[in-house]
Amino acid sequence: MKRSTRRRLTQAVLYAVLLGLVLLLALVADWDAIRANFFAPGGFDSAEAWKELFTVGVKNTLIYTAIAFFGGLALAVVLALMRLSPLGPYRWLATAYVELFRGLPALLVILFMAFGIPIAFQWTPPGGSVGAGVIGLVLIAGAYMAETLRAGIQAVPKGQTEAARSLGMSAGRTTVSIVLPQAFRIVIPPLTNEFVLLIKDTALLFVIGFLAEQRELTTLARDAVSSGPTAGTSTSYIQAAVLYLIITIPLTQLVSYLERRQRRSR
Amino acid sequence: MSTAAGQVPAIDIKDLHKYFGDNEVLKGIDFHVDDSQVVCVIGPSGSGKSTLLRCVNRLEEPTSGQIMVEGIDITDPETDLDQVRSRIGMVFQQFNLFPHMSVLQNLVIAQRHVKRRGKDEAVQVARRNLEKVGLADREGAYPAHLSGGQQQRVAIARALSMDPDMMLFDEPTSALDPELVGDVLEVMKDLASEGMTMMVVTHEMGFAREVGDKLVFMDGGVIVEEGDPAEVLANPQHRRTQSFLSKVL
Lengths: 266, 249
Fold this sequence. Notes:
Radius of gyration of chain A: 25 Å
Number of strands of chain A: 0
Largest interface: A-B, 19 and 27 residues
Number of strands of chain B: 10
Largest sheet of chain B: 6 strands, mixed
Strand order of the largest sheet of chain B: 6-7-8-3-9-10
Order of helices and strands of chain B: EEEHEEHEHHHEHEHEEHH
Distance between the termini of chain A: 46 Å
Number of helices of chain B: 9
CATH class of chain A: Mainly Alpha
Helix content of chain B: 25-40%
CATH architecture of chain A: Orthogonal Bundle
Oligomer: heterodimer
Largest sheet of chain A: none
Helix content of chain A: over 70%
Structural class of chain B: alpha/beta
Shape of chain B: globular
Number of helices of chain A: 10
Shape of chain A: flat
CATH superfamily of chain A: MetI-like
Strand content of chain A: under 5%
Structural class of chain A: mainly alpha
């Protein structure tokens, strides 16, 4: 048999296997159960259900993500600069912080911030326990982004600092005007990734008690499972999943585009 | 010392030692540059010539010895290093322009923050210096869009915009394609003829002979030989100088 004939035959077999598996799944699947449990009436076909998912769920998810991201980023800048400090104690503190919060489950930190701290110190966080939970996300995001940012700062060529210092610019001015802008440019793709991770991590806030108008997407979907027209089915979970993907997939595509562009420019 | 009585040399280095770890790269350098003098430093790679240059504005920390710049001891911890550095222009082999800023911004930023100049004045000074290096029409360009020779001329203009008393050049043409070297050397020649004090680490023997007032040959962390460039190049006294020159000329 010729090599090209054999290759075509192999491909035909592979396609046939795939088609067979799909057909088998379609035949075996209980379509009635799927329709009843995942696509119940009052869900995908209900403008009202979508409206609430958008104006409450998606909105709050994005607000919590934005707070966690930008709060975390501010924290990360401080931590990254501390990790690169010539002063030992600053480096040790930052390293301890990063190791602590990267080593703990996000859920544990959120619970601790939402219940542990407020009860221990009689402290009412802004936004109630949700606010405390978001602060937990800020603390975690800061640890991860600090590492990313540190790598970015170290990737800026040493000659940049030398040029700035040789012009008489102070160490602080050099960091702010020369090093950080270039470091940020380098870490835009991994930071966007971090943003996507945070979108998904806001679902962990579900464990905190919410006021109705504070609910993020996952909590909202969970509530629709216990009450409302699609109660008792997972329809609202599927709807939430679609909404998550509508937000995250363009962002991950953007990341790979930015990464490709960065590779080209090097 | 050849300095006239009462006149302070632009750069005066006494018994300078520099270690990187256990490796002694400068082994007791005595060296001076007078006002308006052009001193070229040559030598094989690893001879310590770039380290010597970088010690003059303390990009490298000297291990011991004294470095006086215009009579100011820059190794004294009390010296305001940023202030001294703003008066010493430095040009690097790799240009080191700020890639996230336009040419004009590259020239303006240190003037604003170090010299505390107003925006209009800083821009005016920047434009004057861009004109001087023949790049007045490229002020809006970003470094990535310039050739190596243009980038190096911008780097020179950036240093000049601080109105420095002297200029240090660290192999300014070594990273350039051969056809771009001439433009940069031309700019440096103009500077020399205007009376700029210059210390140039270079492999351009033609430049050293034509423009230099003094040629210093370094090898193994010491100054082996120094003197009139034409003299040293044509008639090197020391064996190591002879061997080096026979390889590069």
